[in-house]
Amino acid sequence: MAVAELNGAAIVDEAAFHAQSRDAFGFPASYGNSIDAWVDCLSYLRDDENMTKFRLGPDEVLEVVITGADAMKAAAPDLFEELAFCIGGINERYEDYGEKPALELVLR
Asked: pTM here?
């Protein structure tokens, strides 16, 4: 299973979140450092668009692991909630196209 790991203890704001996301997911240089850009990039995990360093097969799932999740939730509760909401929305996008959900949020 593919894994992208974020250090939740270091995510205190959106800038830190996007910096970690760029590294963990291998987003392109054109990544816009916004939640909309994050959603867009992760909506192409099974395509040849090179929006991440991951290329999932039809039945594969990318685990988004947040270590120190409690620290992130305490420091940036709105961002933490939005992240979980966005992962659900991305998975719905995949289902709308007749595919299996592609993301699993794992909190540690």
From this structure: 0.95
| Beta carbons of 25 and 54 less than 8 angstroms apart | yes
Pairing of β 62-67 and β 2-7? parallel
Q: pLDDT tens digit string along 34-65?
A: 999 999 999 999 999 999 999 999 999 999 99
DSSP class of 40:
H
Q: In what order do the strands lie in the sheet with 2-7?
A: 2-7, 62-67, 103-107
> Whose structure tokens read 């692991």?
65
Taking the C-alpha atoms of residue 92 and residue 95, their distance in angstroms, rounded to an integer, is: 5
Burial class of residue 42 (count of CB atoms within 10 Å of its CB; 0-12, 13-18, 19+): buried
